[in-house]
């Protein structure tokens, strides 16, 4: 009996299992405590070219007692995953309806997050930090902002890709397919299969990592690929434990004691949801209260063998458009589909509520998620902004980005984006302010005020709570934004705001006049 687990010294661990090998008794698994063993530099170099953190393996031999653990390195592994033979595809998302109005003028992966980043920076940075530098980004709806950010950050900033590249593939109309829009995640890749197949063959690509652009997490994708290789899997699904309140939002999986997926059910409800409940006691070392997380959800992060992906999209399931709702439920019956459990921080930010909560959670001390890690940093567009200027401010539990001007204001439990301006007497609490793309000089601000107009930023004595303020918003003086009536949903685009899940969302480029009360 053997239990293996991939570990990264810089990220939260996730357990993996080899095909054909069971867990043993539940009691034993609950007692199993796995530590981290650092690998020698030579091993990392031979395995990953020195670009990926070392891993460790824990082995429980058949004659071992419950208290006995034997540790070994991966020196006996027959096949190492090579990052040079791995390519990534990042899906730019659909209409982003659940993130509306933040997606009214931009694609979901282009939505600002954490003060100075964009959501696309998460999978892009994870790829680079994993040693994967052959990346395709599929774009479709409102893609201008996303394309601009990708160009500024990853194509025009001097990043050295050696033999890799970042290529943007925008939805296009083919002669034989009048409907040019992507019909789903699988269809997006299928429509460019002629480009991808030529590239994969030319570059000798063996494995394809498929990612989405609306999540917040840090992952070493090469550990996921290595498990995929170890299991000789056709498809590997990265999964995470979730509670009952969120389970119906995801594709759920059930798998056997070898990690092979037996069932995949997309967004089940009622009796179907109950049927996907699993025993998560084997994760007790990582999640604590196993009763709270009775489901295993797909993260929307997949690894495919090249030939398996091409066969699925071109032949076997050529009429099916979506991985989660159509292809994976069928593939588990005909292919070796494996699950890999990720127990690090992971948050899907595809709704206004989850996006708002994830941003504010960054201000907690200690934060469950850190954007900065010296070995695996997150990259974004180099803006060359000056330091933020603070004048007699009171700030508690907040993110303050570069290039801001804050004057005698109070900020609590909030995220302040780049180039934000807060005037005398402002109070912000539980607020995500995305900032601005431009600076207005003192002379320009004075001229606007004298003419009865509102400058970019927030005016004097304005009080804001439980709010998302999109880019370049102009909020006047003596404004109150608090949703004191607790309205859960409202549409007031002509007045510059919407309300979703009780959160007021000020539109991009909106103007909120002096004295307004929301």
TrEMBL record:
Q: In which pathway does it act?
A: Glycan biosynthesis; starch biosynthesis
Single GO cellular component term: chloroplast
| Single biological process term from Gene Ontology | starch biosynthetic process
Gene Ontology terms for molecular function: ATP binding; glucose-1-phosphate adenylyltransferase activity
Q: Name one Pfam family in it.
A: LbH_GLGC
Region ranges (Disordered): 1-22
InterPro entries, A to Z: ADP-Glc_PPase, ADP_Glu_pyroP_CS, NTP_transferase_dom, Nucleotide-diphossugar_trans, Trimer_LpxA-like_sf
Keywords assigned by UniProt? ATP-binding, Chloroplast, Nucleotide-binding, Nucleotidyltransferase, Plastid, Starch biosynthesis, Transferase
The segment(s) forming the Nucleotidyl transferase domain are 88-363
Q: Where in the cell is it found?
A: Plastid, Chloroplast
Q: What EC number(s) is this enzyme filed under?
A: 2.7.7.27
Q: What class of enzyme is it?
A: transferase
Q: Which residues cross the membrane?
A: none
Q: Which reaction does it catalyse?
A: alpha-D-glucose 1-phosphate + ATP + H(+) = ADP-alpha-D-glucose + diphosphate
Could you say which protein family the record assigns here? Answer: Belongs to the bacterial/plant glucose-1-phosphate adenylyltransferase family.
Question: Subunit notes for this chain?
Answer: Heterotetramer.
Function noted in UniProt: This protein plays a role in synthesis of starch. It catalyzes the synthesis of the activated glycosyl donor, ADP-glucose from Glc-1-P and ATP.
Q: What is this protein called?
A: Glucose-1-phosphate adenylyltransferase
């Amino acid at each position: 009996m053997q239990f293996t687990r991939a570990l990264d010294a810089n990220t939260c661990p996730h357990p993996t299992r080899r095909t054909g090998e069971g867990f043993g008794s539940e009691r034993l698994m609950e007692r199993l405590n796995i530590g981290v063993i650092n690998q020698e530099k030579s091993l990392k170099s031979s395995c990953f070219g020195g670009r990926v953190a070392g891993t460790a393996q824990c082995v429980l031999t058949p004659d071992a007692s419950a208290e006995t653990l034997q540790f070994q390195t991966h020196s006996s592994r027959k096949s190492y995953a090579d990052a040079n033979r791995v390519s990534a595809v990042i899906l730019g998302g659909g209409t982003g309806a659940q993130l509306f109005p933040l997606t009214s003028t931009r694609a979901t992966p282009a939505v600002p997050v954490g003060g100075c980043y964009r959501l696309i920076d998460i999978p892009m940075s994870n790829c680079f930090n994993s040693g994967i530098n052959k990346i395709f980004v599929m774009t479709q709806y409102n893609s201008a902002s996303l394309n601009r950010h990708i160009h500024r950050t990853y194509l025009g900033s001097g990043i050295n890709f050696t033999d890799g590249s970042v290529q943007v593939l925008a939805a296009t109309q083919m002669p034989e397919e009048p409907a040019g829009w992507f019909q789903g995640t699988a269809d997006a890749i299928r429509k460019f299969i002629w480009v991808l197949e030529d590239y994969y063959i030319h570059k000798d690509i063996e494995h394809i990592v498929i990612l989405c652009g609306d999540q917040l997490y840090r992952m070493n994708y090469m550990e996921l690929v290595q498990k995929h290789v170890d299991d000789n899997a056709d498809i590997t699904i990265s999964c995470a434990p979730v509670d009952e309140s969120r389970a119906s939002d995801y594709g759920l999986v059930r798998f056997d004691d070898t990690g092979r997926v037996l069932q995949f059910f997309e967004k089940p409800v009622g009796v179907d949801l109950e049927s996907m409940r699993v025993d998560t006691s084997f994760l007790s070392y990582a999640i604590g209260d196993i009763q709270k997380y009775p489901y295993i959800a797909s993260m929307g992060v997949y690894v495919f063998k090249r030939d398996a992906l091409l066969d699925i999209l071109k032949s076997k399931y050529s009429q099916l458009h979506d991985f989660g709702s159509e292809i994976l439920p069928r593939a588990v019956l005909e292919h070796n589909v494996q699950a890999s459990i990720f127990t690090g921080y992971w948050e899907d930010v595809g709704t206004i509520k989850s996006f708002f909560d994830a941003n504010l959670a960054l201000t907690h001390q200690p934060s469950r998620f850190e954007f900065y890690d010296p070995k695996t940093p997150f990259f974004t567009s180099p803006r060359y902004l000056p330091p933020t200027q603070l004048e007699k401010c009171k700030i508690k539990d907040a993110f303050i980005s570069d290039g801001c001007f804050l004057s005698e204001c109070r900020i609590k439990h909030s995220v302040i984006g780049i180039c934000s301006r807060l005037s005398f007497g402002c109070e912000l609490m539980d607020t995500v302010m995305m900032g601005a793309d431009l600076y207005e000089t003192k002379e320009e601000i004075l001229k606007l005020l004298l003419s009865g107009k509102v400058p970019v930023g927030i005016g004097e004595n304005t009080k804001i709570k439980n709010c998302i303020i999109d880019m370049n918003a102009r909020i006047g003086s003596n404004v109150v934004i608090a949703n004191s009536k607790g309205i859960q949903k409202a549409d007031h685009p002509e007045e510059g705001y919407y309300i979703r899940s009780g959160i007021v969302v000020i539109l991009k480029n909106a103007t909120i006049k002096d004295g307004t009360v929301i």
